[in-house]
Amino acid sequence: MNYKRDKTREKRSKLHIVIAMMAFSTIGVFVKNINLSSAEIALWRGVFALNSLLILLIISKKLSDIYKIKKGLNKLILSGIAMGFNWVFLFEAYNYTSVALSTLSYYFAPTIIMLVNMFIFKEKLSLKQVICFIASTAGLVMIIGVSGGNSSDLIRVLYGLLAACLYATVVLINKATGEVDGLIRTFIQFAASVFVLIPYVYFTTGFHITEINTLGLINLIILGVFHTGIVYYLYFNALSYVTGQQAAILSYIDPAPPAQFYYQL
Fold first, then answer.
1. Does this model's pTM top 0.85?
2. What's the sign of the alpha-carbon dihedral 17, 23, 26, 32?
């Protein structure tokens, strides 16, 4: 009976990851319309998401449960810090005209996740997963194409790789924290992200939120409330019920749509 419930939860979690990946694939479209620096977009994205989740915590009467979290708290805070800087590097890559190479380098994250899970978490990679992984990687390369290299391409690759390492860190730490309530888990990580991004933005680009235009503000609210608050809640909650290998393979659903869109710009 427990096995059946676990299998049902696993299937539902996989669906939630698929939904999250499809939503993540549209992030670049919104970021392009926000006339702020990458770091400041990342900060306000977290702020809007944090407030959205705070409302949900109050409605669900779970706000007081945050203070009961002891096991895994440090890991969630570390994950939140990594997530904040993941946004910075990813959005910085989006600021360039072409995102083909940055997308390709960013989606080496599943490779990192799979390798770490094999050596640290001792998860075995099945033949089916190997085939899916190879097919997904080959498909990604064919979808986005690879252009000739130059200095700006190198920058895109570096930003993408940095974002990939941080993204993999977020996924792996979330896997290691165990079954913490998804809403609380996500709230703590966003709080940590915002906490480290405030001084980072202050000392680098400064705050220019008052200069944002109407279109940019609308896109920023959507990015914060939907893509970050709601979608990350689905994603982080699902990570506890799937293997690292499954999460890595399902991550390949994300890049195809934005890559095709930007490649035409």
1. no
2. negative
